[in-house]
Design a protein that fits this description.
Length: about 350
Amino acid sequence: MLAAEFAQELADYGRIYMYRFRPDYMIRARSIDDYPHRTRSAAAVMLMISNNLDIAVAQHPHELITYGGNGAVFQNWAQYRLTMKYLSEMTDDQTLVMYSGHPLGLFPSHRDAPRVVVTNGMVIPNYSSRITGRNLMPSGITVWSDDCWFLYVYRPSGHNSRDHITILNAGRMLQKSGDSEGARLFVSSGLGGMSGAQPKAASIAGIISVVAEVNQKAIRTRFQQGWVDEVYSDMKKLVGRVRQAMTSKEIVSIAYEGNIVDLWETFADEEIKIDLGSDQTSLHNPWAGGYYPAGYTFEESNRMMADDPEKFSQAVRQSLRRQVDAINRHTNRGTYFFDYGNAFLLEHQGPGQMS
């Protein structure tokens, strides 16, 4: 019965989620004492896991993904159930060992040992390629590794502090290079997951920001949460608003509901000086929703991704080349563009490489 059910999930979704084990209660970060536990340390881990999968936090909570398009806390719901069970039973003399989302069990340790030990993405180097990873992940052998979701520590406020320091120091670099005004305008993309902290961080650093996002839901969430001040979908109105803010030196964070490629190209055509530029689209995962190509709506891209993945990948490559060309137009005028560790520059190696 399970084999047939899971095979159908694999056919329908491209991986096995074991939805029969998804809990019927709302997963959210509750008070630590609300979790059944024998040691408070284990309850803290349960709270952290719940926060990562909270519907108000996670990018795709039903798919166990916190952010980044494929940043999964677990590979399936059975692993979630087993992990929470182990944590509820754990004592101060035990350690839970996690391997790519799978709980290997409780092992004898001691009070001063880690309560949880986690390892992810362990693939023999000869087979450690993006293509192999894409094949291994749906089969439940490994997960994509990063630093937040599999350690259960993701929180937007933490990324706000990091982004603020990065943007602030990038602006200081401009001042050291002889720009008396320093940075006045920051342009980037992405308002979901980690990237959602960018506009607030820029405002704290005293810089006007425009961040493009194609997902209306992500924009609405960041606007309601106060991470972005204003939202525009009309490019002409956006250009006018940015010029007004730059003239009056008004610090404002703006979300552009549209593609980042259009934003870079239009600002180049309109000769709007961008002091700092970056990108926080999930380009470690470009073919499965990490990057949306220009020329298509969000809905059109999602359909093409599912129905014609080869056409979608070609559209992504073409869009990336356009984005590089537009960014180079700005860097030739003095824009300082930096990679934010999202594999942006890696994806631009070869034809159309950035200068």
